[in-house]
Amino acid sequence: MLSVTSLLKDAMHLFFPHTCLGCGNDVIARDNILCLRCISNLPHTNFEKLPGNPIENIFRGRITIEAGSSQFYFSKGHLVQYLIHQLKYKSNKEAGEYLGAVMGKALLQSGRFSNIDYLVPLPLSAGKQFKRGFNQAEVICDGISTAMQVPVHAGNLVRERYIDTQTKKHRTERWENVEGSFNILHPEKLQGRHILVVDDVITTGATLEAGIQCLLDIPAIKISIATLATASK
Predict the structure, then answer these.
(1) Are 38 and 80 within 8 A, CB to CB?
(2) Does the predicted TM-score (pTM) go above 0.85?
């Protein structure tokens, strides 16, 4: 005999269906956005476990970082691209927080990111953030913060000018496009701290490096990097 609770759950699911954001399957836990099949198909890089991984190599000889990682491979037409698109262009913050929490758990378990003091989202320009209504890197940080129990430190690192889209630019043009575009308002708040600078997708690393350059003069600062996704292998 069906219980009242079971009947209520079935009725709620009928009128307020909760389906997988990836494939639309309705066999999904209430507190999740993806079904088990989509979760198992997420293309993890496992870079967080590997010193000298491809993300760290991007910055080798350019800036000094403690550790770097990217959680997923990014391929056109695949699930990670769709979820990031949902976050950035459909204002689906739940997708960003979920993926951030997955990344935060992996970073913490690796042992290489266990002594972070602050999560610092790479900022958007004021105009772009006003148009979008939020900074996707800050949403990702919220998810990471839930998993790692590390506070988000936003609003100190700022982007002082609008940067033209990087998508169609060559590598050298990307570096020139972002040079000198960031500033730190209160450097004393990060003195002696180990911060994790967070962004959504990394390609050449030009934007991240530009943001980090203005942090490097802060006494005794340590900087690590984490992005949600990197170009597919």
Answers:
(1) no
(2) yes
